[in-house]
UniProtKB/TrEMBL annotation:
InterPro entries: MurNAc-LAA_cat (IPR002508), N-acetylmuramoyl_amidase_3 (IPR050695), SH3-like_bac-type (IPR003646), SLH_dom (IPR001119). Residues 25-91, 92-151, 152-216 form the SLH domain. It comes from Metasolibacillus meyeri. CDD domains: MurNAc-LAA. This is N-acetylmuramoyl-L-alanine amidase.
């Protein structure tokens, strides 16, 4: 045999080896075309050695529509989590033979807590896996936080909070592993899982690349903390409906009896109350319910009426730092349903809440003045005829007065001044919301700031020295850096187990937001600001954790940084502030506008504008708070900027400049 022939044969053999490897790396089953919805996930798991197919009639097939069994799942999750089969001398189950491949995987899955016995002494290796069992297996194997997610509501009408697998189903829903059925409204817990479906589920659990879009951003699913109050049924068999209509019975979800209390989310003008019922929004008739404050105090009968003095906030709880549910302005009449300490229990437009007694005055009813000298009989003094109204000659317009000489504003001698951000702001005798009021100031009034301790500023206005809650002051430095000493909270969105929006395998929102946030922090600190970060690494503070962090660190402004994802054509920057009525709404808007404008200008981004949306982290704060969406990772142009070191610096500089601009006005 010639050298050329030998060389040619070696080349053919080597090429064949490469082809074999390539075919394995891109395995295709005869019954799983590339167009199959789970094709990519199936091949991903094949390449990891997690699953194998069947050989029938010379073809390799996967049987995607066949039920996946408990035994098959035990092997898959053990392999997918990097564990090894457990060798035992005696099987734990009468239906699993010791020494077999299956035995090792089943024993390990049981030891790790992925499974429970199917029945006493039996594992049920050939029993098809149901969707409820699947949720527990994935949560246990991939260590998803079922306890945390179990506190949230899910959109599935067939899964109540009392369901045995509720927390596991909630965990895989909020982790982007399932969205339920095709409508997204049912989970179908007892439905059998197909092999192709489980391949998708396990791929999503193992690799974030395959996960569905996370169901919440900020907040879109109602929970108890979003409630504006409570309602209590005043009759038995009160229908709870899926929509605000009693036209027919098709929308009845259930019935409640007298005394049943539900969280209230909205009061409709047409007589319906939007409530939470068995994990979903629902509606009941206002005519058969009693309003109850969020702390459980019922609004039964009106004990008296008072008048608002200036602008009076309606608070969710008896705390000036709680959510503002509305405002009474001018001399609006306020109905009092109860009194607790320094607070009146009342309501506005059906929304229960509390007002400070010190911001109201009692209504004094003057006795009628009797101008009739002989009216003791009650007879008209003109014999019953209508009295002719007197002719009133209008006085001529007075001569215009010489306008007074404008009074020069007082000189403010302190290094820092405060500009009131609300009307009717009390100056207190001491650093307490319950201390005596020394007077009030309105929005835009400037005060001298002598010192700040926690949430209270020691100030002087028109010779009166006292304390003002700094949440209602925009603190302005008269010399030096505009932000020196300002406590600014920066919130890098998402983190830890929550990657945020993603693109491909390498681009994750949580990494972009942390990078930009760190740059913003450095710039702010270089100018003397005190910067607090809700996270400094790849950790997962909950939304409430972020809100609490800002409050506990006495934050003065809050900036949450995010990136967006939608269709490939959507692009640009948008900035949000809370739609819920709050004292500092104008400050929110000013801060949002300044930051959004700077980003659009400096990074040359499409301007999607400043918008009012109740994202959890901005809704939960009274201090000026905004949420910035830098751009869209789903858009090529934006994505190139979001992943660029150069633009990370530009985004950070723009946010910094926006904050400085806010404090410069």
């Amino acid at each position: 045999m010639s050298f050329k022939k030998v060389s040619l044969m070696l080349i053919v053999v080597i090429m064949s080896m490469f082809n074999i490897h390539n075919v394995y790396a891109n395995a295709r089953f005869a019954d799983v075309p590339t167009s199959h919805g789970a094709s990519e996930e199936i091949n991903y798991l094949v390449n990891l050695g997690v699953i194998k197919g069947y050989t029938e009639n010379g073809k390799t097939i996967f049987k995607p529509n066949a039920p996946v069994t408990r035994g098959q799942v035990a092997k898959m999750v053990v392999e997918a989590t990097g564990s090894k089969p457990l060798v035992v001398q005696k099987s734990s189950f009468s239906d699993v033979q010791v020494g077999t491949e299956l035995s090792g995987y089943v024993e390990r899955a049981i030891e790790l807590g992925y499974f429970s016995a199917y029945s006493p002494g039996k594992f049920g290796p050939n029993v098809p896996l149901t969707r409820d069992e699947m949720s527990k297996v994935l949560v246990s194997a991939f260590k998803l936080d079922a306890e945390e997610y179990g506190k949230l509501t899910v959109p599935f009408t067939d899964i109540k909070p009392t369901h045995a697998y509720y927390k596991y189903i909630a965990a895989i829903y909020y982790s982007g592993i399932t969205k339920g059925d095709t409508t997204g409204t049912k989970y179908n817990a007892t439905e059998i899982v197909k092999r192709s479906q489980f391949a998708s589920f396990i791929a999503r659990a193992k690799d974030e690349k395959y996960r569905l879009d996370l169901p919440v951003k900020g907040v879109t699913i109602p929970n108890a903390t979003d409630a504006i109050g409570q309602v209590r049924a005043t009759t038995d068999n009160l229908n709870v409906r899926s929509s605000a209509s009693s036209a027919n019975a098709s929308n009845i979800l259930g019935k409640i009896n007298t005394g049943t209390t539900l969280h209230l989310y909205e009061v409709s003008a047409n007589g319906w109350l939007k409530v939470a019922y068995e994990g979903r929004y629902a509606y009941i008739s206002k005519d058969y319910a009693q309003l109850v404050a969020i702390d459980g105090q019922a609004l039964s009968t009106v004990s008296k009426e008072v008048k608002a003095v200036g602008e009076v906030n309606l608070y969710k709880t008896r705390d000036v730092n709680s959510q503002t549910m509305g405002k009474f302005t001018g001399e609006a009449t306020i109905k009092v349903y109860g009194t607790t300490g320094n607070w009146y229990l009342t309501e506005q437009n059906g929304i229960p809440g509390y007002v400070r007694i010190s911001q109201t005055t009692d209504i004094i009813v003057e006795p009628p003045t009797d101008n009739n000298d002989n009216s003791g009989e009650g007879e008209p003094n003109n014999g019953g005829e209508e009295e002719t109204p007197p002719v009133v000659t209008p006085n001529p317009d007075p001569e215009p007065e010489t306008p007074p000489t404008p009074v020069e504003p007082p000189t403010l001698n302190t290094k820092t001044i405060g500009s009131a951000t609300v009307d009717g702001l009390h100056i207190r005798q001491s650093a307490s919301g319950s201390s005596a009021s020394l007077g009030r100031i309105n929005r835009g009034t400037l005060v001298e700031v002598h010192s700040i301790s926690g949430n209270w500023a020691n100030v002087t206005h028109n010779g009166v020295t006292g304390y003002v809650h700094k949440t209602y002051l925009r603190l302005i430095n008269q010399t030096g850096s505009k932000i020196a000493g300002r406590i600014i909270v920066i919130d890098p969105g998402h983190g830890g187990k929550d990657p945020g929006t993603t693109h491909g395998k390498t681009i994750q929102e949580k990494e972009i937001t942390l990078k930009v946030s760190n740059l913003v922090k450095a710039k702010l600190e270089a100018s003397g600001a005190i910067v607090k970060m809700t996270r400094t690494g790849d950790t997962y503070p909950s939304l409430q954790d972020r809100v609490d962090f800002a409050k506990n660190n006495y934050g003065e402004v809050f900036v949450s940084i995010h990136v967006n994802s939608a269709s490939s054509s959507a692009k640009g920057t948008e900035t949000y502030y809370s739609v819920t009525s709050n004292d500092n709404e104008k400050e929110d808007f000013a801060l949002a506008t300044a930051v959004n404008t700077q980003i659009v200008k400096q990074a040359n981004m499409n301007n999607r504008g400043v918008k009012r949306v109740d994202y959890y982290v901005v809704k939960g704060l009274i201090m000026p708070a905004i949420l910035v969406e830098l751009g869209f990772v789903s858009n090529a142009e934006d994505r190139n900027k979001l992943t660029s070191d150069k633009y990370a610096e530009i985004f950070a500089q723009a946010i910094y400049d926006g904050i400085v601009e806010y404090y410069s006005k």
